[in-house]
């Protein structure tokens, strides 16, 4: 018997569990594969306030403070560095859009400022990107995701969080609308509170319980260069590609928005909810007719199952998509053109990650109609940086305490669901 079971060992699950353990709760994380083996170790490592939805900004600002504290508290190196994030603008229209965001964000107390063309050139001397200016947030930060989240999980387990890897949650046990526990592949766990923080799998897990999340996933491709002469020690992007200095002396390079999308039953089901996003991102999306076997929205993936048989979560322990070679080749060409002195760096590694997203690019952090159930998912491509803050507000929800931040924008009821 535990007080709270958390389904999913990514940054959201880990930070929620840790927070609850610090508040004296007995917490178990069930992870179907390995801790942080999906999005939470595959991301760019940006810890970003800049250009955030205003609804997320206060949580993100608190997150940054938590990251700062964690960095000195953890006994392991996680590559946390507060060196700023910069959006480079290729035309006046983009600059204006950034200015508009900044106009609204000033009220929150961000240190973001606009850079002139000359200041942008001074930031990236010898570059040939054709940038007309930029927006920068000096207090924005970065960390090495593949180091950070496992280190956070180890720290959480030292504070009492129990973590079971290779232990998929199959279903919730519910009597008269109240949670009684979780059925896992390794047996029953008795508890009256559960957090679903299952990343790209949340909607599939919740569907048999009559909770509809219009969640989809896109494949984003990333690569890592060999160490090269340092020309910039922070993170930036220009609407076509993004680059971040790594603690090992290389750079993490990736496309800005370009991604692959596997068409499946959920894509059809949620077509109208995503239509506005689709219109905006049509040209940067490569459509594929079907997802690889066993992916959450693959055509053959069962939508319902018996809790005493193998489930889709056990058929895919780790979502490990192949990166798109073509996309990465384009990014490399753009990068070497923008930084001719660096040229084409050698690529040491490349990988893909399935980003889980919601139609309005905002997460769901809310209770559901089942008493004792909290959902914290749909981080929509920016859950790494905000993870510590989201862990805190999710813990507040679990404890039935008034969260320290407004969560209305993340309510489940913005989508059709039973009350
Ligand atoms: C390429 C890429 C770049 C990104 N860049 C950034 C960035 O720079 N900054 C930023 O802030 N964010 C970024 N993100 C987004 C960020 O990584 C995610 O928003 C965040 O990691 C989501 O965390 P999570 O805990 O919700 O999900 P995940 O990390 O995906 O974890 C969910 C976990 O749940 C487990 N699980 C699922 N179903 C079950 C089940 N039934 N039983 C048990 N376990 C289950 C999964 O195995 C998985 O480990 C990026 C993402 C990608 C892929």
Automatic annotation (TrEMBL):
Documented EC number(s): 1.-.-.-
Domain FAD dependent oxidoreductase, chain residue ranges per copy: 3-397
GO molecular function per UniProt: oxidoreductase activity
InterPro entries (UniProt xref): FAD-dep_OxRdtase, FAD/NAD-bd_sf
This protein's name: NAD(P)/FAD-dependent oxidoreductase
Gene3D superfamilies reported for this sequence: D-Amino Acid Oxidase, subunit A, domain 2, FAD/NAD(P)-binding domain
Upper taxonomic lineage: Bacteria, Pseudomonadati, Pseudomonadota, Alphaproteobacteria, Hyphomicrobiales
Keywords, alphabetical: Oxidoreductase
Family membership: Belongs to the DadA oxidoreductase family.
């Amino acid at each position: 018997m535990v007080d709270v079971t958390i389904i999913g060992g990514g940054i959201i699950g880990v930070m929620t569990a840790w927070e609850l353990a610090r508040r004296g709760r007995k917490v178990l994380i069930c992870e179907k594969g390995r801790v942080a083996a999906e999005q939470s170790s595959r991301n760019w490592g940006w810890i970003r306030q800049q250009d955030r939805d205003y609804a997320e900004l206060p949580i993100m600002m608190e997150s940054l403070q938590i990251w700062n504290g964690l960095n000195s508290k953890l006994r392991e190196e996680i590559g946390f560095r507060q060196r700023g994030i910069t959006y480079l603008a290729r035309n006046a229209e983009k600059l204006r859009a950034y200015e508009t965001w900044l106009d609204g964000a000033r009220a929150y107390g961000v240190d973001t400022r606009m850079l002139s063309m000359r200041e942008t050139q001074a930031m990236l001397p010898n570059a040939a990107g054709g940038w007309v200016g930029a927006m920068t947030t000096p207090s924005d930060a970065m960390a090495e995701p593949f180091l950070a989240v496992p280190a956070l999980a180890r720290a959480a387990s030292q504070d009492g969080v129990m973590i079971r890897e290779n232990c998929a949650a199959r279903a919730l046990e519910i009597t008269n609308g109240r949670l009684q526990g979780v059925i896992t592949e390794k047996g029953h766990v008795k508890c009256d509170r559960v957090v679903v923080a299952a990343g790209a799998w949340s909607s599939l897990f919740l569907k048999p319980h009559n909770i509809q999340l219009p969640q989809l996933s896109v494949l984003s491709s990333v690569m890592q260069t060999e160490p090269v002469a340092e020309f910039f020690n922070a993170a930036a992007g220009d609407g076509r590609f993004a680059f971040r200095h790594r603690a090992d002396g290389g750079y993490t390079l990736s496309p800005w928005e370009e991604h692959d999308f596997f068409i499946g039953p959920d894509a059809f089901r949620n077509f109208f909810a995503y239509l506005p996003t689709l219109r905006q991102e049509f040209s940067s999306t490569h459509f594929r007719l079907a997802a690889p076997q066993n992916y959450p929205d693959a055509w053959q993936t069962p939508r319902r199952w018996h809790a005493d048989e193998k489930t889709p979560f056990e058929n895919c322990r780790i979502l490990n998509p192949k990166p798109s070679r073509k996309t990465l080749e384009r990014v490399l060409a753009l990068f070497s053109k923008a930084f001719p002195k660096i040229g084409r760096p050698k690529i040491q590694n490349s990988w893909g990650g399935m980003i889980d997203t919601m139609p309005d690019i905002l997460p769901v952090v809310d209770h559901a109609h089942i008493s004792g159930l909290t959902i914290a998912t749909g981080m929509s491509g920016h859950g790494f940086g905000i993870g510590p803050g989201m862990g805190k507000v999710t813990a507040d929800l679990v404890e039935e305490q008034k969260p320290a931040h407004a969560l209305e924008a993340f309510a489940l009821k913005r989508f059709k669901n039973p009350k």
